[in-house]
Specification:
Order of helices and strands: EHEEEHEHEEEHHH
Largest sheet: 4 strands, mixed
Radius of gyration: 18 Å
Mean pLDDT: 95
Helix content: 25-40%
Structural class: alpha/beta
Number of helices: 6
């Protein structure tokens, strides 16, 4: 069994494609007109009701039952870029989780929750730059030093 992708319902495939390509830098893998797949495993589907054979009125906007999560190496730069989209509806301000990761949540064009967080590698580096040792970072983030080393070595 292989996981293939996550498909989300969109109203306008072209606007949504532009949104995900421009804001997140996603690259198209396959384009079938009303269905577009990105190399990261996200797919957009216009006419979702037709695809899954459900009544159109059962495809909900702002269902608030899932989120798409992204991590960003240059979190502050991303926040500036996000300001170029004045109609974005935010789910609060930037917050910092107990483990130190800063995140922002907002809705995409079709009401799907998006979370963009500072990459975990950057969180670790930020703490190290502030003078914390790996052991202190481990305690602060509530993860083992081994897990921290794994995060630092990941290419994601």
């Amino acid at each position: 069994m292989n996981y293939i992708c996550t498909v989300i319902s969109v109203t306008d495939i072209n606007l949504s494609r532009e949104f995900y390509e421009n804001l997140f830098g996603l690259e198209v893998y396959q384009n079938y007109g009303i269905n577009i797949s990105f190399t990261c495993g996200l797919a957009l589907q216009q006419e979702f009701d037709w695809l899954v054979n459900l009544p159109k009125d059962t495809v909900l906007k702002n269902s608030n039952n899932m989120e798409l999560c992204f991590e960003e190496e240059n979190f502050d730069d991303f926040l500036q870029k996000l300001k170029e989209y004045p109609h974005i509806e935010y789910l609060g301000d930037v917050m910092e989780h107990s483990w130190g990761q800063r995140v922002i949540r907002f809705y995409d064009l079709d009401g799907h929750i998006i979370e963009v967080g500072e990459s975990m590698k950057m969180v670790i580096n930020r703490f190290a730059d502030s003078g914390l040792t790996m052991s202190e970072i481990s305690n602060r983030m509530n993860v083992s030093v081994e897990d921290l080393k794994t995060l630092l070595s990941c290419s994601i």
